[in-house]
Amino acid sequence: MNISLVMIIASSLLAGCATKKEAEQPKSTSKPFEGKKITFATANHPWADTIKTLLPDFETKTGMKVEVQSYVDEQLTQKMTVQFTSGSTTPDVFMYRPLQEGKQFTKNGYLQPMDEYVKKDASYDFNDFYKPSISATTFDGKLTGIPLTTEQEILYYRKDLIEKAGISVPKTIDELVAAVKKLHDPNNGVYGFVARGQRSALVTQVSSFLFSEGGDFIQGDKATINTPEAIKAFTTYGTLLKDYGPPGVLNMSWPQAMGVFAQGKAAFYTDGNSFYQNATDPSKSIVADKVGFATFPAGKAGAKPASVISWGLAMNAKSADKDAAWEFINWATSKEIVLKTQQKGVQGARASVWNNPEGTKSFPSELVKVIKESSEIGVSHDRPVVIRVGEAREAVGGIVLRAILGEDVKGEADIANKMLQDIIDKEKTE
Protein backbone atom coordinates (compact mmCIF):
# COMPACT_ATOMS: atom_id res chain seq x y z
CA MET A 1 0.00 0.00 0.00
CA ASN A 2 1.20 3.48 -0.82
CA ILE A 3 2.76 5.15 2.25
CA SER A 4 0.86 8.40 1.55
CA LEU A 5 -2.42 6.51 1.42
CA VAL A 6 -1.67 4.86 4.79
CA MET A 7 -1.01 8.24 6.35
CA ILE A 8 -4.25 9.68 4.99
CA ILE A 9 -6.26 6.75 6.34
CA ALA A 10 -4.60 7.00 9.77
CA SER A 11 -5.24 10.72 9.95
CA SER A 12 -8.89 10.19 9.06
CA LEU A 13 -9.29 7.58 11.78
CA LEU A 14 -7.68 9.82 14.39
CA ALA A 15 -9.84 12.78 13.38
CA GLY A 16 -12.92 10.60 13.63
CA CYS A 17 -11.99 9.47 17.15
CA ALA A 18 -11.35 13.06 18.20
CA THR A 19 -14.70 14.16 16.82
CA LYS A 20 -16.46 11.34 18.65
CA LYS A 21 -14.73 12.22 21.94
CA GLU A 22 -15.66 15.89 21.51
CA ALA A 23 -19.29 14.90 20.92
CA GLU A 24 -19.26 12.80 24.09
CA GLN A 25 -17.89 15.67 26.23
CA PRO A 26 -20.50 18.07 27.69
CA LYS A 27 -20.14 21.52 26.21
CA SER A 28 -18.89 24.04 28.74
CA THR A 29 -20.43 27.48 28.71
CA SER A 30 -19.91 30.66 30.66
CA LYS A 31 -23.64 31.27 30.38
CA PRO A 32 -25.35 28.37 32.19
CA PHE A 33 -28.76 30.04 31.87
CA GLU A 34 -28.54 30.70 28.14
CA GLY A 35 -32.05 30.72 26.70
CA LYS A 36 -33.74 30.80 30.12
CA LYS A 37 -36.40 33.38 30.94
CA ILE A 38 -37.95 34.47 34.24
CA THR A 39 -40.54 37.09 35.14
CA PHE A 40 -39.88 39.61 37.89
CA ALA A 41 -42.70 41.64 39.48
CA THR A 42 -41.66 44.87 41.18
CA ALA A 43 -43.18 47.77 43.05
CA ASN A 44 -42.55 51.27 41.73
CA HIS A 45 -39.67 51.81 44.12
CA PRO A 46 -36.16 53.36 43.97
CA TRP A 47 -34.60 49.93 44.56
CA ALA A 48 -36.37 48.52 41.50
CA ASP A 49 -35.45 51.57 39.43
CA THR A 50 -31.76 50.94 40.11
CA ILE A 51 -32.04 47.20 39.46
CA LYS A 52 -33.61 47.87 36.06
CA THR A 53 -30.55 49.86 35.01
CA LEU A 54 -28.25 46.99 36.06
CA LEU A 55 -30.26 44.18 34.44
CA PRO A 56 -28.61 44.31 30.99
CA ASP A 57 -25.26 43.37 32.55
CA PHE A 58 -26.85 40.47 34.45
CA GLU A 59 -28.57 39.20 31.29
CA THR A 60 -25.32 39.43 29.31
CA LYS A 61 -23.33 37.49 31.91
CA THR A 62 -25.90 34.75 32.51
CA GLY A 63 -27.65 34.51 29.16
CA MET A 64 -30.95 34.75 31.05
CA LYS A 65 -33.78 37.05 30.00
CA VAL A 66 -35.63 38.85 32.79
CA GLU A 67 -39.08 40.18 32.01
CA VAL A 68 -39.94 43.02 34.40
CA GLN A 69 -43.51 43.81 35.44
CA SER A 70 -43.96 47.01 37.50
CA TYR A 71 -46.91 47.98 39.70
CA VAL A 72 -47.79 50.48 42.41
CA ASP A 73 -47.65 48.99 45.93
CA GLU A 74 -51.25 47.92 46.48
CA GLN A 75 -51.69 46.88 42.87
CA LEU A 76 -48.66 44.61 43.20
CA THR A 77 -50.15 42.91 46.28
CA GLN A 78 -53.52 42.44 44.59
CA LYS A 79 -51.94 41.12 41.39
CA MET A 80 -49.74 38.63 43.26
CA THR A 81 -52.63 37.41 45.42
CA VAL A 82 -54.83 36.74 42.39
CA GLN A 83 -52.09 34.94 40.46
CA PHE A 84 -50.90 32.83 43.37
CA THR A 85 -54.46 31.85 44.31
CA SER A 86 -54.91 30.51 40.79
CA GLY A 87 -51.68 28.49 41.05
CA SER A 88 -49.77 30.59 38.52
CA THR A 89 -46.11 29.74 37.93
CA THR A 90 -45.42 33.43 37.27
CA PRO A 91 -43.95 35.70 38.34
CA ASP A 92 -40.89 33.68 39.29
CA VAL A 93 -39.51 36.42 41.55
CA PHE A 94 -41.32 39.33 43.17
CA MET A 95 -41.01 42.14 45.68
CA TYR A 96 -43.23 41.93 48.75
CA ARG A 97 -43.69 43.64 52.12
CA PRO A 98 -42.85 41.10 54.85
CA LEU A 99 -44.80 42.92 57.58
CA GLN A 100 -47.86 43.33 55.35
CA GLU A 101 -48.07 40.17 53.26
CA GLY A 102 -45.43 37.87 54.73
CA LYS A 103 -47.58 35.90 57.14
CA GLN A 104 -50.49 35.47 54.74
CA PHE A 105 -48.29 34.49 51.79
CA THR A 106 -46.41 32.00 53.96
CA LYS A 107 -49.59 30.46 55.37
CA ASN A 108 -50.98 30.01 51.85
CA GLY A 109 -47.78 28.40 50.57
CA TYR A 110 -46.98 31.12 48.04
CA LEU A 111 -43.35 31.64 49.12
CA GLN A 112 -40.57 29.22 48.30
CA PRO A 113 -38.31 28.60 51.35
CA MET A 114 -34.76 29.64 50.52
CA ASP A 115 -32.83 28.17 53.45
CA GLU A 116 -30.94 25.72 51.23
CA TYR A 117 -30.32 28.20 48.42
CA VAL A 118 -28.46 30.70 50.61
CA LYS A 119 -26.04 27.93 51.67
CA LYS A 120 -25.05 26.89 48.14
CA ASP A 121 -22.51 29.64 47.49
CA ALA A 122 -20.13 30.66 50.28
CA SER A 123 -19.37 33.94 48.51
CA TYR A 124 -23.01 34.99 48.94
CA ASP A 125 -22.21 35.34 52.68
CA PHE A 126 -25.71 35.06 54.09
CA ASN A 127 -24.44 35.84 57.60
CA ASP A 128 -23.61 39.33 56.36
CA PHE A 129 -27.28 40.32 56.66
CA TYR A 130 -28.27 41.94 59.95
CA LYS A 131 -30.12 39.45 62.15
CA PRO A 132 -33.27 41.57 62.70
CA SER A 133 -33.68 41.86 58.93
CA ILE A 134 -33.53 38.08 58.48
CA SER A 135 -35.96 37.62 61.35
CA ALA A 136 -38.43 39.84 59.49
CA THR A 137 -38.40 37.55 56.45
CA THR A 138 -38.52 34.30 58.41
CA PHE A 139 -41.88 32.69 59.12
CA ASP A 140 -42.58 29.35 60.78
CA GLY A 141 -38.83 28.82 61.03
CA LYS A 142 -38.29 29.11 57.27
CA LEU A 143 -36.51 31.81 55.30
CA THR A 144 -39.16 33.02 52.87
CA GLY A 145 -37.51 36.14 51.50
CA ILE A 146 -34.30 38.15 51.28
CA PRO A 147 -34.30 41.66 52.81
CA LEU A 148 -34.03 44.54 50.36
CA THR A 149 -34.71 47.82 52.15
CA THR A 150 -34.46 48.61 55.84
CA GLU A 151 -35.75 51.32 58.14
CA GLN A 152 -34.96 52.03 61.78
CA GLU A 153 -36.82 54.15 64.32
CA ILE A 154 -34.51 56.96 65.43
CA LEU A 155 -34.56 60.18 67.41
CA TYR A 156 -34.27 63.41 65.42
CA TYR A 157 -33.30 66.45 67.48
CA ARG A 158 -32.32 70.10 67.21
CA LYS A 159 -28.62 70.46 67.96
CA ASP A 160 -28.83 74.20 68.48
CA LEU A 161 -31.64 73.96 71.03
CA ILE A 162 -30.02 71.34 73.26
CA GLU A 163 -26.68 73.16 73.12
CA LYS A 164 -28.31 76.44 74.12
CA ALA A 165 -30.13 74.70 76.99
CA GLY A 166 -26.93 72.99 78.11
CA ILE A 167 -28.37 69.48 78.02
CA SER A 168 -27.12 66.23 76.48
CA VAL A 169 -28.77 64.14 73.83
CA PRO A 170 -31.27 61.90 75.67
CA LYS A 171 -30.09 58.31 76.09
CA THR A 172 -33.15 57.11 78.01
CA ILE A 173 -36.87 57.68 77.64
CA ASP A 174 -36.91 59.41 81.03
CA GLU A 175 -34.19 61.77 79.82
CA LEU A 176 -36.18 62.38 76.64
CA VAL A 177 -39.28 63.34 78.62
CA ALA A 178 -37.22 65.73 80.77
CA ALA A 179 -35.54 67.30 77.73
CA VAL A 180 -38.85 67.69 75.90
CA LYS A 181 -40.32 69.44 78.92
CA LYS A 182 -37.35 71.79 79.19
CA LEU A 183 -37.30 72.77 75.51
CA HIS A 184 -41.06 73.11 75.13
CA ASP A 185 -41.57 76.80 74.32
CA PRO A 186 -44.85 77.28 72.41
CA ASN A 187 -44.87 81.02 73.05
CA ASN A 188 -41.84 81.22 70.78
CA GLY A 189 -43.18 78.70 68.27
CA VAL A 190 -41.18 75.67 69.42
CA TYR A 191 -42.92 72.56 70.76
CA GLY A 192 -41.02 69.99 72.76
CA PHE A 193 -42.04 66.93 70.77
CA VAL A 194 -43.73 65.89 67.54
CA ALA A 195 -44.60 62.46 66.11
CA ARG A 196 -47.44 60.73 64.32
CA GLY A 197 -50.82 61.07 65.98
CA GLN A 198 -53.14 59.41 63.46
CA ARG A 199 -54.72 56.29 64.92
CA SER A 200 -53.25 53.72 62.54
CA ALA A 201 -50.12 55.59 61.48
CA LEU A 202 -48.84 56.06 65.04
CA VAL A 203 -48.66 52.32 65.78
CA THR A 204 -45.35 51.78 64.00
CA GLN A 205 -43.84 54.68 65.96
CA VAL A 206 -45.10 53.80 69.43
CA SER A 207 -43.68 50.30 68.90
CA SER A 208 -40.15 51.38 69.88
CA PHE A 209 -41.47 52.83 73.15
CA LEU A 210 -43.26 49.52 73.72
CA PHE A 211 -40.24 47.31 73.01
CA SER A 212 -37.89 49.48 75.06
CA GLU A 213 -40.16 49.15 78.09
CA GLY A 214 -40.02 45.37 77.75
CA GLY A 215 -43.39 44.84 76.06
CA ASP A 216 -44.65 43.68 72.68
CA PHE A 217 -47.94 43.53 70.80
CA ILE A 218 -48.10 39.75 70.92
CA GLN A 219 -46.11 37.18 72.89
CA GLY A 220 -46.55 33.64 71.66
CA ASP A 221 -50.25 33.38 70.82
CA LYS A 222 -51.34 35.95 73.38
CA ALA A 223 -52.19 39.60 72.83
CA THR A 224 -50.20 41.73 75.27
CA ILE A 225 -51.22 45.32 74.66
CA ASN A 226 -52.79 45.77 78.11
CA THR A 227 -49.74 44.76 80.17
CA PRO A 228 -48.13 47.29 82.55
CA GLU A 229 -45.23 47.69 80.10
CA ALA A 230 -47.59 48.39 77.21
CA ILE A 231 -49.70 50.86 79.16
CA LYS A 232 -46.60 52.73 80.29
CA ALA A 233 -45.28 52.96 76.73
CA PHE A 234 -48.58 54.07 75.24
CA THR A 235 -49.12 56.60 78.01
CA THR A 236 -45.64 58.08 77.61
CA TYR A 237 -46.05 58.52 73.86
CA GLY A 238 -49.57 59.91 74.16
CA THR A 239 -48.66 62.29 76.98
CA LEU A 240 -45.68 63.66 75.08
CA LEU A 241 -48.01 64.60 72.22
CA LYS A 242 -50.79 65.83 74.52
CA ASP A 243 -48.66 68.05 76.73
CA TYR A 244 -45.76 69.03 74.48
CA GLY A 245 -46.94 68.48 70.91
CA PRO A 246 -48.24 71.02 68.38
CA PRO A 247 -51.94 71.55 67.68
CA GLY A 248 -53.58 69.04 65.34
CA VAL A 249 -51.44 66.02 66.22
CA LEU A 250 -54.42 63.68 65.85
CA ASN A 251 -54.32 64.36 62.10
CA MET A 252 -50.60 63.83 61.67
CA SER A 253 -48.89 61.00 59.82
CA TRP A 254 -45.20 61.27 58.92
CA PRO A 255 -45.45 64.05 56.29
CA GLN A 256 -47.23 66.41 58.68
CA ALA A 257 -45.04 65.55 61.68
CA MET A 258 -41.85 65.85 59.66
CA GLY A 259 -43.14 69.13 58.27
CA VAL A 260 -43.45 70.55 61.79
CA PHE A 261 -39.89 69.49 62.62
CA ALA A 262 -38.43 70.69 59.31
CA GLN A 263 -40.01 74.10 59.83
CA GLY A 264 -38.16 74.45 63.11
CA LYS A 265 -41.26 74.09 65.27
CA ALA A 266 -40.23 71.06 67.35
CA ALA A 267 -37.18 70.15 69.44
CA PHE A 268 -37.52 66.36 69.16
CA TYR A 269 -39.11 64.04 66.62
CA THR A 270 -39.21 60.23 66.48
CA ASP A 271 -39.79 58.40 63.21
CA GLY A 272 -38.11 56.23 60.58
CA ASN A 273 -34.66 57.21 59.34
CA SER A 274 -35.72 56.75 55.72
CA PHE A 275 -37.25 60.25 55.86
CA TYR A 276 -34.08 61.99 57.00
CA GLN A 277 -33.54 63.97 53.79
CA ASN A 278 -36.76 65.86 54.47
CA ALA A 279 -35.01 67.27 57.53
CA THR A 280 -31.54 67.83 56.05
CA ASP A 281 -32.39 69.16 52.57
CA PRO A 282 -32.22 72.97 52.68
CA SER A 283 -34.95 73.17 50.05
CA LYS A 284 -37.32 71.36 52.42
CA SER A 285 -36.04 72.29 55.86
CA ILE A 286 -35.18 75.63 57.47
CA VAL A 287 -33.18 73.78 60.14
CA ALA A 288 -31.23 71.57 57.72
CA ASP A 289 -27.87 72.41 59.30
CA LYS A 290 -29.15 72.03 62.86
CA VAL A 291 -30.52 68.46 62.74
CA GLY A 292 -29.00 65.72 64.85
CA PHE A 293 -29.64 61.97 64.87
CA ALA A 294 -29.55 59.58 67.82
CA THR A 295 -30.33 55.96 68.59
CA PHE A 296 -33.80 55.56 70.07
CA PRO A 297 -33.54 56.12 73.84
CA ALA A 298 -33.59 53.22 76.28
CA GLY A 299 -36.48 52.23 78.50
CA LYS A 300 -36.63 49.63 81.26
CA ALA A 301 -35.54 46.92 78.81
CA GLY A 302 -32.84 49.02 77.14
CA ALA A 303 -32.86 50.62 73.69
CA LYS A 304 -34.96 48.47 71.38
CA PRO A 305 -35.85 50.45 68.28
CA ALA A 306 -37.92 48.95 65.51
CA SER A 307 -35.58 47.87 62.71
CA VAL A 308 -37.82 46.64 59.93
CA ILE A 309 -37.76 45.49 56.34
CA SER A 310 -39.92 47.64 54.10
CA TRP A 311 -39.45 45.33 51.12
CA GLY A 312 -38.10 41.85 50.54
CA LEU A 313 -37.44 39.67 47.50
CA ALA A 314 -39.23 36.32 47.26
CA MET A 315 -39.51 33.31 44.97
CA ASN A 316 -42.80 31.89 43.76
CA ALA A 317 -43.20 28.41 45.27
CA LYS A 318 -44.61 27.25 41.90
CA SER A 319 -41.90 28.78 39.71
CA ALA A 320 -41.09 26.46 36.82
CA ASP A 321 -37.35 27.22 37.07
CA LYS A 322 -36.33 27.79 40.67
CA ASP A 323 -32.60 27.59 39.90
CA ALA A 324 -32.90 30.48 37.45
CA ALA A 325 -35.07 32.39 39.91
CA TRP A 326 -32.46 31.93 42.63
CA GLU A 327 -29.65 33.01 40.28
CA PHE A 328 -31.45 36.32 39.87
CA ILE A 329 -32.14 36.72 43.60
CA ASN A 330 -28.53 35.79 44.39
CA TRP A 331 -27.31 38.53 42.06
CA ALA A 332 -29.86 41.18 43.09
CA THR A 333 -29.06 40.77 46.80
CA SER A 334 -25.31 40.22 46.49
CA LYS A 335 -22.80 42.50 48.20
CA GLU A 336 -21.92 44.12 44.88
CA ILE A 337 -25.50 45.02 43.95
CA VAL A 338 -26.55 46.02 47.48
CA LEU A 339 -23.63 48.45 47.42
CA LYS A 340 -24.85 49.92 44.13
CA THR A 341 -28.45 50.27 45.27
CA GLN A 342 -27.37 51.78 48.59
CA GLN A 343 -25.24 54.31 46.75
CA LYS A 344 -28.51 55.43 45.19
CA GLY A 345 -29.96 56.08 48.65
CA VAL A 346 -31.69 52.73 49.29
CA GLN A 347 -30.84 51.53 52.81
CA GLY A 348 -29.75 47.91 52.50
CA ALA A 349 -29.48 45.11 55.07
CA ARG A 350 -25.87 43.98 54.61
CA ALA A 351 -23.43 44.90 57.40
CA SER A 352 -20.44 44.84 55.03
CA VAL A 353 -21.99 47.58 52.89
CA TRP A 354 -22.63 49.77 55.93
CA ASN A 355 -19.00 49.20 56.96
CA ASN A 356 -17.80 50.18 53.49
CA PRO A 357 -17.09 53.93 53.09
CA GLU A 358 -18.33 53.65 49.50
CA GLY A 359 -21.69 52.47 50.82
CA THR A 360 -22.14 55.26 53.35
CA LYS A 361 -20.66 58.36 51.74
CA SER A 362 -24.07 59.69 50.69
CA PHE A 363 -25.43 59.49 54.27
CA PRO A 364 -24.66 61.87 57.17
CA SER A 365 -21.88 60.30 59.26
CA GLU A 366 -23.85 60.71 62.49
CA LEU A 367 -26.80 58.90 60.92
CA VAL A 368 -24.61 56.04 59.67
CA LYS A 369 -23.49 55.34 63.23
CA VAL A 370 -27.13 55.32 64.42
CA ILE A 371 -28.26 53.03 61.59
CA LYS A 372 -25.49 50.51 62.26
CA GLU A 373 -26.21 50.38 65.98
CA SER A 374 -29.97 50.20 65.48
CA SER A 375 -29.61 47.43 62.90
CA GLU A 376 -27.75 45.33 65.46
CA ILE A 377 -30.06 45.87 68.46
CA GLY A 378 -33.38 46.45 66.72
CA VAL A 379 -36.66 44.53 66.79
CA SER A 380 -37.78 43.12 63.44
CA HIS A 381 -41.39 44.34 63.49
CA ASP A 382 -43.15 47.61 64.22
CA ARG A 383 -46.78 46.40 64.27
CA PRO A 384 -48.65 43.26 65.34
CA VAL A 385 -47.51 40.39 63.10
CA VAL A 386 -50.90 39.11 61.97
CA ILE A 387 -52.66 38.73 58.64
CA ARG A 388 -55.33 41.29 59.52
CA VAL A 389 -52.70 43.90 60.29
CA GLY A 390 -55.01 46.82 59.48
CA GLU A 391 -57.56 45.77 62.11
CA ALA A 392 -54.78 45.14 64.63
CA ARG A 393 -53.31 48.59 64.09
CA GLU A 394 -56.68 50.20 64.65
CA ALA A 395 -57.00 48.38 67.97
CA VAL A 396 -53.57 49.47 69.18
CA GLY A 397 -53.97 53.01 67.88
CA GLY A 398 -57.18 53.42 69.84
CA ILE A 399 -55.28 52.97 73.11
CA VAL A 400 -52.77 55.70 72.27
CA LEU A 401 -55.54 58.06 71.19
CA ARG A 402 -56.97 57.79 74.70
CA ALA A 403 -53.62 58.85 76.10
CA ILE A 404 -53.38 61.81 73.69
CA LEU A 405 -56.87 62.89 74.73
CA GLY A 406 -56.09 62.36 78.41
CA GLU A 407 -58.74 59.65 78.79
CA ASP A 408 -58.86 56.13 80.28
CA VAL A 409 -55.90 54.25 78.82
CA LYS A 410 -56.24 51.04 80.88
CA GLY A 411 -59.90 50.57 80.04
CA GLU A 412 -59.27 51.03 76.32
CA ALA A 413 -56.25 48.71 76.52
CA ASP A 414 -58.37 45.90 77.95
CA ILE A 415 -60.93 46.31 75.17
CA ALA A 416 -58.28 46.49 72.47
CA ASN A 417 -56.43 43.48 73.86
CA LYS A 418 -59.55 41.37 73.52
CA MET A 419 -59.97 42.59 69.93
CA LEU A 420 -56.40 41.64 69.09
CA GLN A 421 -56.77 38.25 70.77
CA ASP A 422 -59.88 37.57 68.68
CA ILE A 423 -57.87 38.32 65.53
CA ILE A 424 -55.09 35.93 66.62
CA ASP A 425 -57.54 33.14 67.50
CA LYS A 426 -59.51 33.45 64.24
CA GLU A 427 -56.38 33.34 62.11
CA LYS A 428 -55.27 30.09 63.72
CA THR A 429 -58.46 28.32 62.59
CA GLU A 430 -58.86 29.84 59.13
What's the CATH H-level superfamily name of the largest domain?
Answer: Periplasmic binding protein-like II
> Which percent band covers the strand fraction?
5-15%
Shape: globular
Q: Under the CATH scheme, which class of the largest domain?
A: Alpha Beta
Q: Counting H and I runs of at least 4 residues, what is the number of helices?
A: 19
Low-confidence stretches: 1-28
Q: How many domain regions?
A: 2
| Total DSSP E strands | 12
The radius of gyration over CA amounts to 27 Å
Q: What is the terminal separation in angstroms?
A: 89 Å
Structural class by sheet pairing and helices: alpha/beta
InterPro entries: Bact_solute-bd_prot1, SBP
Protein name: Extracellular solute-binding protein
Organism: Paenibacillus germinis
Provide an overview of this structure.
Pfam families: SBP_bac_1 (PF01547). This is Extracellular solute-binding protein. Helix 2 packs antiparallel against helix 14. The model is unreliable at 1-28 (pLDDT under 50). The N and C termini lie far apart (89 Å). The strands form three sheets. Strands 1, 2, 3, 6, 7, 10, 11 and 12 form an eight-stranded mixed sheet that branches. It is globular, with a radius of gyration of 27 Å. It contains 19 helices and twelve strands. The protein folds into two domains: 37-150 and 308-377, Periplasmic binding protein-like II (D-Maltodextrin-Binding Protein, domain 2, 3-Layer(aba) Sandwich), CATH 3.40.190.10; 153-305 and 383-429, 3-Layer(aba) Sandwich (D-Maltodextrin-Binding Protein, domain 2), CATH 3.40.190. It is α/β, with parallel strands linked by helices and 430 residues long. 46% of the residues are buried.
